Amino acid sequence: MEVVSTNRSHGGVQGVYRHSSAETGTEMTFSVFVPDHAPGQKLPVLWYLSGLTCTHANVTEKGEYRAACAQHGVIFVAPDTSPRGEGVPDDEAYDFGQGAGFYVDAAQQPWAQHFRMRAYVEAELPAIVAARFPADMERQGITGHSMGGHGALTVALRNPGRFRSVSAFSPIVSPLNCPWGEKAMTGYIGEDRSAWREYDACALIEDGARLPALLVDQGSADGFLESQLKTQLLVETCEKAGQSATIRMQEGYDHSYYFISTFMPEHVDWHATHLKG
Ligand SMILES: N[C@@H](CCC(=O)N[C@@H](CSC=O)C(=O)NCC(=O)O)C(=O)O
Question: What does UniProt list as catalytic (predicted)?
Fold first, then answer.
């Protein structure tokens, strides 16, 4: 693992790291914030999955999580959103290909070889974090934004018992029911819509999966709300399934990091209460 940079910040160290991924077959970059801690102490981990067009850098530079993470002693990990680089297929559109991995293991060509973001975020990167950072892997939470909110919800729903807390900012709640999702799932997984269900938070809940604790914030002035995000589908699915959830509409907020950074400290506080002890 190569150390790209480290910076002292908020009583901790913000690092950026690069490694050669066996899953994606590419170099992958990720960021980790580690609060100061006693020698030998292990800290809980909060994962953050980013949205379309993002790298690790968007939340690292604009997410404003460090003060809360330092206060609560929580490690914050931000992976990239796709494989990148020479030899990796791409698409002209911002919502498919590089920067738009949708946290799936692609089954279609030409994507299947490198686009293995599910295996990367579910297995390969957690093993690296456990081995290289003072991480208590018995105390993990996960969050994310938009495509990354979809990632956080679906990774947690498929891995019961791994995360104590799950939250999301303006998540895509049902790729089966929105243009971003239909395009990505068709391209990466194929035409058989039944195979998309393991990548659809509402479908996973309908099929019996459950989350330990769920917090969602959604801006009412988000231009993607009606066409892509469809928060109401998650509200209705949780109600019908008896999945407890706090899903909040935040008046006047849009889809940007101005919104995310406003509520980020509250999400970190909320995760920290679930990750204590
Ligand atoms: N470029 C696109 C919009 C892309 C966009 O809004 N990306 C969001 C995530 S959207 C869902 O996954 C994002 O986080 N962007 C990075 C940032 O730093 O804001 C368009 O033109 O519509």
Answer: 146 (charge relay system), 222 (charge relay system), 255 (charge relay system)
